[in-house]
Amino acid sequence: MYGINGSDFPPVTEDTFCKYVLYYEINNSRVRIWDLIILIPNALFVLFLVVRFNKAQLKLRATSSPIFLTFYSLVWGNVIISLIRCGVSMTVNASMPFGGLIDKILWVTVRFFLLATEMSVVIFGLAFGHMDSRSSIRYVLLATSLISLAFTITQGTLEIVMPDDIFHIDTRDYDLFGHGGMLFWFTSSLVFAIIYFIILLLPWIPLREYLALPTKLSFYLYILLLALLDTTQAVGAGLLAWGSMQCGLCVVDVTTWLYFSLYTPLVYHTFLSEFFSVSQPSIMFSYKAQMDEPMEDDQVSLPHQQSFSSLKTDSDYIYQQSNSVYDSTLFEAGGTTPMNPVYSASLQSPDSIVSGQSIEIGAPTAFHTQHIPST
């Protein structure tokens, strides 16, 4: 038995590139290549967010829907904690017991934030028609945080108590972060992949008649990418757990880099990019059906509702017909998100306001004048 929490086969040999890249330090400077290639895309994404921060702040103030601020906050939280992990991992000596423990705790912390975001995004997408109050959003974030906490505590415990020998470095006598071991990694990846494939099948099964499913293509593309990522990750972990195939380590290296480097930009691009780029905030999710529910005290306007200045009614958007189950994008440039009335009015010129009033009130078609005799 070579691995307590992993494989019955010997660990992958030290000279394989896919393992070497995980612990190789540049000029013995504690800066590992693995941390560096994860740091660079996250740093570039932070720079992108900083450049667009003022514009994003104005857009968030313009909309009364809290869902956009929630997504934006999750994006910032994920990328900041990823940068912190990379920076700290480059300063501590992972080959020492204390340094290795800190490195693993940071990996688990990043996984907690990313998993909580991953589950929250899916719930918001499937139940956005009911996510119409700040309290409901808080409940979702609390629930996903608790689930993610249980997941990461289990992963961290396995990682510290029963490290996988596949990630043991004999020459330096310490263990790399092994994501809880191959068996745990394989099982969790497979479960998530099954869940995502079930979500992809929802529009095609009879259950869709009882659900208000999103019709935007981008949401389902997002789910498909995660399903493929988890499936590939499960295959790689399975190759390492039940076989001595060195290619399995290369597979999980690629999926790990994609997840920890590009997942947060994917969330931003899918759910926020068009919101911050169009002249007016747009529709986030479109649904084939909407259900009437009691209003809560802290209820706010939904992205599918119109601003007070719009000439279209809600029914124009709620009951719009489509020949396909999916639409082209998750956002719709032609739609509008509810805007604060004062902000919306401030965007109009005095002439447009006057002309708008004249259209609504109507102007007399003729004027009768009286000639007053001159004195």
Automatic annotation (TrEMBL):
**What is the topology of this protein in the membrane according to its UniProt annotation?**
Multi-pass membrane protein
Principal location class: membrane
One molecular function GO term is: G protein-coupled receptor activity
Location within or outside the cell: Membrane
Q: Which UniProt keywords apply?
A: Membrane, Transmembrane, Transmembrane helix
Q: Which domain of life is it from?
A: Eukaryota
GO CC annotations, alphabetized: plasma membrane
Transmembrane parts of this sequence: 33-54, 66-85, 105-127, 139-162, 182-207, 219-245, 257-278
- PANTHER family given for it? TRANSMEMBRANE PROTEIN ADIPOCYTE-ASSOCIATED 1 (PTHR15876)
Q: Which family does it belong to?
A: Belongs to the UPF0359 family.
Q: Could you tell me what this protein is called?
A: Transmembrane protein adipocyte-associated 1 homolog isoform X1
Q: What is the lineage of its organism?
A: Eukaryota, Metazoa, Ecdysozoa, Arthropoda, Hexapoda
